[in-house]
Request: fold
Amino acid sequence: MKDQLQEIIEREDVVLFMKGTPQFVMCGNSQRALDALRRAGAPVTAVDILPDPAIRQELSALSGWPTIPQVFVRGELIGGADIVEELEQSGELERTLTDKLGEGYHAEERVVALA
Amino acid sequence: MNRLEELLREAFPGGEVSVEDRTGGGDHFQVSVVSPRFEGLSLVEQHRLVYDALAAPLADGTIHELRISTKGAK
Reply:
């Protein structure tokens, strides 16, 4: 599980670990993070942490971040819902995405399931 | 709620601390902290300090949901 998480975080441009899926969000804070990422046009890869409690345990051990959601850009923890919302409102989220991913970073969101 | 305020005041002496019970249910909180400890730190690092200060109530389930707002003192 830990290796799988590490691999997704390193492989995907923008990862959102959330409760539920973008189509069926199960938590207000996950919704807030998803909405902010959508407003910035981020190419979100969403991972639902609910199917297995081990996902959340391993993720928090890995990131040192106690709560869900968690957003990573190019392998780096950007923050939870509060930070992502704050960064989006100040325009800094788009700047970070442009810096790290280049101008044409906009892409479809997708969902990855952990086996 | 008072316990959260106490923990935050201990962790951020001389800072401005406020704790709001968002739903009235005693487990969804909005905390705001202004502290010189945050200066020069990224938002992730700032929020980590708040999580550290509230590690006990986060672990024992007192806090079901936490919203954080942080600022360095000017």
User: Anything to note?
Assistant: Residues 2-72 of chain B form a domain with the GMP Synthetase; Chain A, domain 3 fold (CATH 3.30.300.90). Residues 33 and 53 of chain B are 11 Å apart (CA to CA).
